[in-house]
Amino acid sequence: MRRTALRGVWLVGTLLLTLGSLVGAVLLAPAGDATAPGPALGGLLFLGSSVHVASTGWFYTVPQVRRHLRASPGRYLVAPVALVAVMALLAAVVPQRPFALLLLAFFGWQFFHFQKQNLGLAALASSAYRCGPLRPGERRAITATGLAGTLGLLSHPALLQLTEAPRLGTLFPVAAGGYALAAGYGAVQWLRRPAPERPAAVSGIYLTALAFFLPVFLFTSPYAAVAGLTAAHGYQYLLIVGLVAGGAARRQRQEQIQVRLLSLAVLLNIGLFLGLGLNLASHLHTGTGPVRAVYGAYLGMVMAHFVVDAGLWRLRDEFPRRFLGERLPYLLGRQG
């Protein structure tokens, strides 16, 4: 019963945080030509962006995870350090206009990373509710909507507030058409499932993944079109990492409670304090020299977060499957 309740908390929480962030960003988007979000939207973005990236650092505090990280130093140690160093150097020496092209590539990676997470959440929901794995067509549809949404953003860089980047406006309607086709295809694929294999809970997660990039094609305000995507992605991540941190291997009850509280406290402190540093660094893009290098290091840390997460959440690999199975058995179809 407890595991069923935790599964429901994750699923309902994911839906509410995702839809709430997408709608909330539209409602809180600054009016007119304002170039900065108000306090409410700023706080939403701080938690969904900087704090969520910083929270990846929590995994490095878990002895079981550290042993796995040391076994793959290229991905988990060398690559993060290299990304931070290279991006800091490039930000310091590359002029603003060509650096905007690097930023376009960064944003392309970032927003496709968002949709990879949505795909993972849909697959996890299907597993948690014992509906079987996602069909190939269902996976293709989620991936295709993510590619179309990312292309829409890159072809309309004003939505990313990249004034120096070239605008490829002719590609935007192509991206919109591709997005509509992919979303429609995904809905048809989903309806082909037998009714018992598409309960409302799982359908909600899957259809939300298909609709995730819809704001990109509906709004011209950067905050209405993009801020919600960033916040929704971050809150999805914070929820599931919080559940992982609050999970624990079998111990005596009192010891288990203490371990969970300590783990959550460590996650909270890493997220907030490292997140504050990342947030400050993210606003240094207009600086020069060493100041701009700090902004580059921030970009490198976000990229490192992409790389580390791509390994730690890849459930086809033995360690992530075992580690998450111990912490979140109710999401991996282990109801026992």
How would you describe this structure in keywords?
336 residues; mainly alpha; 13 helices
Task: Summarize the structure in short.
The chain has helices at residues 2-28, 39-54, 63-71, 73-93, 96-128, 136-155, 171-191, 200-211, 214-218, 222-246, 253-281, 289-312, 318-327.
Question: What is the strand and helix layout of this fold?
Answer:
Blueprint: H1 2-28, H2 39-54, H3 63-71, H4 73-93, H5 96-128, H6 136-155, H7 171-191, H8 200-211, H9 214-218, H10 222-246, H11 253-281, H12 289-312, H13 318-327
Overall form? globular
Report helical residue fraction.
over 70%
Number of strands: 0
Secondary-structure element string: HHHHHHHHHHHHH
Average pLDDT number? 91
Percentage of residues in DSSP E strands: under 5%
What would you call the quaternary organization? single chain
Contiguous runs where pLDDT drops below 50 for at least 5 residues: none
State the major sheet: none
Counting helices, strands and paired strands, the structural category is mainly alpha
* Number of discrete helical segments: 13
Output the radius of gyration: 20 Å
Q: How far apart, in Å, are the first and last alpha carbons?
A: 10 Å
Can you walk me through this structure?
By secondary structure, the chain is an all-alpha fold. Helix content is 75%, strand content 0%. The chain has 13 helices and no strands. The chain has helices at residues 2-28, 39-54, 63-71, 73-93, 96-128, 136-155, 171-191, 200-211, 214-218, 222-246, 253-281, 289-312, 318-327. Helix 5 packs across helix 10 (222-246) and helix 6 packs parallel to helix 8. It is globular, with a radius of gyration of 20 Å. The N and C termini lie close together (10 Å).
